[in-house]
Request: fold
Amino acid sequence: MDPKEFSAVLEAARAGGEWAWSRLYRELAGPVLGYFRARGATEPEDLLGEVFLQVARNLSSFSGDAAGFRSWVFTIAHRRMIDERRARSHQPLELVADPESEPSWDPAVIVLDRLGTERIAATLKCLVPNQRDVLLLRIIGGITVEEVAAILGKSTGAVKALQRRAVQTIKRNLRQAVPI
Amino acid sequence: MSEMNNFDHYTDDQVEAILNGYDVSDEDFALASFIAEARAIATEPVDAELARRQVRMLAEAALLTSSNARSVRKVEGDRSDRATPDGIFIARRRRLLTKAAVVGLAAVLMGGGIASAATGNLPAPAQEALANLAARLGIELPNPARPLPHVAGPTTADVKPEAAVQAANAGVFTTAVQETIDEYTSALKAWAACVASNASERGTTQRGSATRTAGPFDPTAGCDPKPQLDVPNPVDFDLTETGTGAGGAEEDSQPADHPNGPPADNPNGPPPDTGPPAGLP
Reply:
């Protein structure tokens, strides 16, 4: 989205324009949902809704370009994820059957859809939480080292070190998992 | 082991290259594939029905937020303005502007017949829309797009009996519109509070009891039906459409910007479709 277009979309979104929200949602809902899924959130769709609702409430306080907006949304998403992780650590999870939760009825489709995300999530478990955050924000969020540093409250040097160690750990883990 | 560590050691530039998917050596192929697979998660489409529901909720939340922000600004403005007689007039005028803005907001929400008039940067365009509507009925209201020239008021001798009746009816009509807006605003706030309470309760229940409820979540469940804005009909007040500017008001009333439609090639031109945006209730 070029700066002029983004500015128009943002202004319209502030005024409640549904088309503008549709544009912003289409742009960022996929990455945010992917971030939650890869982080192993239990209710990623609910978290997605909460993130965007907070964006809608606080949009008047935002100023910046499209990249800044993306970074801002992922800041909210990251904090939501931390809240969810804390809540989950305090309360045991009891899952009950929910036949309407899956959009597809075909088990093969469901399995294939979930397999990729689960494999990613499983591989990422070999990382410490900070490394996982950095890697997912960089890869799925598509944001820069500097923005990740701002989101996590760390220096850019620390973020670079975390992502370097994360990449090295994953490489080792993949080599051990699939011996050639 | 030390050989493996040396082998796996990357510079920052190499890490950037791997994360961005270029200059990947054969040795790093598995790693690059994993990262490409992780990146693909971000492009997985969100369920269409979920997206549609959430987008609508976001648009309404943004509307309510901007409406509340204006109310706060109005109250703050009223406090400072009331120090002088001019300030009282300004405060009253602002109240009128805010109410008109609510009409515009409501029109956008409802997607009704006057939705096309309530487009532009709120609240000014909403005011403009109401001013244009009023102008067609012969009522002059502040219009941000076309400031009215200062003219001397008519003398008693200038006022004809029919005009006096029209003016009286217009006054009654304006009062009725304001009362309708007040009632609608209160009802809408109550409804929004109920929906927000449901959403909040749902979030607490979901993580509190850590169970998943069956079926899709309906945030309006248990709330009253969403209030509808029923603007009084000018015809009921014996107001005809032969007032000032009836001929040109239709074209002139198009605001410069149209926030509830995609930006056209010419952003200053009128919106291509003056009907309610698709998907609005």
